[in-house]
Structures are given as structure tokens and as C-alpha cells.
Amino acid sequence: MMLWPKFRALALVAQALVASQLWTIVDAKSAVGDRVLVVIEPALNQASYSHFWQSLEARGFKLTFKGPKEEQAPLTEYDENKFDHLIMMAPTTTSFSSTLKPQRLVADMTAHHINTLFVLSPSISEAQRDLAREFDIEFQERDTALIDDFHYSPASSKHDQVLLNISSGLDSETPTTIVPSTLRTSSNPILYNGIVHTLGQNPYLIPVLHAGETAFSDDLTELDEDELLDRKKKTVISGEQAYLASAMQSRGNARIGWIGSEAMLRDDSWAAKVEDQDGRSYTTVNGHFAEAFTAWIFQEKGVLKVIHTEHHRVNETESREMYRIKDDVTYSATISEYTTENGQSSWRPFSAVDIQLDFTMLDPHVRTSLHERAVTADGQATEYDVTFKCPDRHGVFKFVLDYWRPGYTFIHEQSVVSVVPFRHDEYPRFIQGAWPFYTGAFLTSAVFLSFCGLWLYSVEGGNKVVAVKVQKTQ
């Protein structure tokens, strides 16, 4: 009898744990999960980035810290994700644990869709440069940094603490989902002290932040005459060619970001009071940029989801597996967007005018735009539809909904149907376009019959046939 209170207490504790877990799920801002693995090398002081960690924890993320050579806490185990996101702050590390080796890391990011942020520095190792080359990104050589002799903080004698205005550093192709409009119009600069990189031809790369027109990449160490001569022979990276931050989204919607300055995330740069070379005071927006950049990488915004698709004949409601040529077909899709605004994350209606539908059989036979019809009753999605005529060609076709826009997760939905010709008893008795052929056939038959009649019943005039009987004589 004394066991009942203990069981009741255990039940209450279990209920409380379940409730807390559900609350955590609801409170999480990311659309894919809140588990973050932070790999930070011993050379970096974890306490120096407290504002960055607090910003992530305030947004509902659970941080797990480990060293680059520690074997515990793998990203995946038994083909299941143990973490949803990864922050790699090991710019000088040359060797990693078996679970963080470049080959394993690339496989986890692409196959298991783990969102990753790489934070680097001018002391970048060759291993990190090689890993970036896997994504067609080329970081400058070790001990080089961005220098600007016209926009810098006087605290640095080498002018490598660059003050970059957001409006002049944003790339023209940077989506608003990565850098919001409120940050684009800010007059306060970013304090940047780090390395730069260039982008290749990878179509999945998204340029985010580049250097100003007066900034360039140069060596921070003193060189002798031979080294200086070799350096002058190399191409100088400057202006819009020198990128400070870039991003990429894989085909599986895994998001990856690169920042070339770990000092950019330190507490003394997060919202620091700085002066430029002319003595004017500013408050850096490093913290605002880091929050916006990580919010996109960790899929707190710009996430699209297709809730429902359907297709049917006009004036019908049920979908078919088989349509007839020249049928009028209506295709509809319900799309929702996951975004975070003012600390609130939710699924909301998605509005766009460039969503296309392809009706394909090897090649698109019909390509048309979807039109926004209405917002769903729950106010969380938008319904799109379009009506088109099936092509005059039978075969196996696919409804393909592809939406690939920088800054949003990629959408790819398809459904297979058959398009068949008319049955033998479904064709019209007489085809309107064939009346000239019908007329020609009837006229040819009539003329031929008339000619035969005239030929059979006509007699040559004035000629008589006389039969002569000849007798045979002996």
C-alpha cells in the first residue's frame, strides 16, 4: 500500500518531463531542430563569445561544446542525426577526430542535411582551406587579412580592423531572408578583422558580404625582398571580389555559411563603441548581422513547405491517374513559409508571383505560372492554382513543381499521370477541318460515275451496223 504514493510521484515527474520537452519543441525557433554542436579549438577562449552563445540560447537552441579532436558527441550515429546544426570554430586546427574529418563532415552535411557555420581567421589552416575548396570557395593564404586605409579603427596600426558599412558591403544578389531590410538601412558599421575569400562557379553559392571598394587583402607579416617579390606577382583581391561572408544551400536544403573572422563574434566586437579614422563614434552591428546570418543558416526563416498538391479535370474534384489529350486540367498547390519575426516563429502564407508548373514528358510540353488564389482558412498557407489544356500527345507525363530561389529552401514536387488518346468511339463523326477532303472525295466519285454513264449509253451518230451472211461454196 505504501508503493502507490511512490508510483504517483514518479508519474507526476514523468508528466512534468514530457510537458517540459513539449514546451521546448514549441519554443524552438528553428524549423528542423534545436540541437547545436559547437566545435571550438583550445586556442580560442569560449568565454570571449558569451554574447554569441547567449543569443543562440535565447532563441531556443541547446548548445553542446567539444574540441576538434574529441571523439564523443558525433554528428550522426546509427544513421540518425544526433545534432541538427554545427558551428565549426577551429580555424587553425590541422587534424580532427574521426567524426569530424572533412570527408565525413561533407557526407553528414549533404546526406543528413546538417546546417553548418564555419568561423575562420587569418591563421587559417590548410585543412580548412581544402575543406572550403570542396564547395568552390578559395580562402586567401595564411596570415593575410582585409586591410582598408580609408575606413578603419585607429586601434589597429595595420588598418586591419576595417569598418564596413552594410549598404556598401552587401552583394546585389543577397536575399532579404539572409540580411533583412532593417539591417540594410543601418548607418552603423561592421567591425571586421579577418581573412577574405573568393567564390567560384558553384551555382548553389550565395554571396552575402564583400569588402568595400577601398579594401584589399594583404599579408600581415613582414616579408623579405624575395617573399615580397613573389607576393607582388600574385593577384591582389580587393573590393567586390573579396568576400567576408558567404552562404550555400545544397540540393537537400542543408545550409552552410562561412565567416572569415572569429573576432567578429567576440564580446568586444558584438556591440562595441568604436571611432573611425576621423574621430566619429559608432556602435557596431556585428551582433545584429551574426543573429540574422545564423537565423538563416539554422533555418529560422526562409523555409518553404508544400502542404498539399492536387490535380483534376475542370468541373471535377477528384484526381485522376489518366487524362485524355486536350482535357482542361486544374493543378493546385498549398505552400507555407516558416519565418521568425520579433522573436515569434510560425508558419505563414507565402506570397510569390514566379512559381511555375511544368507538365513534362522528358521535355516540358506545358510551362505555366501558378496564380495566387487565396489564403487557407487557418491563415498559415497560400493556395495557388492554374488551368491548362493537356497537349495533343499521349504518353506518361509528370506534374513538376520546381521553385529554386536564393534565400528559400528548394521546392520539388512531382506526380505522374498518363495522357491517352481518344477511344475509337470518342472521335467526332465528321471532323470540321476535313471538309475540303470530304468534298473532294464526293466530287471525284460523282464525276467518275457520270463519266461511266455517259460512256455506256452514248452512240456514235449516222453509223449503222449491217450484218452480212457469207455462204460457203464448194
From TrEMBL:
Protein name: Uncharacterized protein
Biological source species: Naganishia onofrii
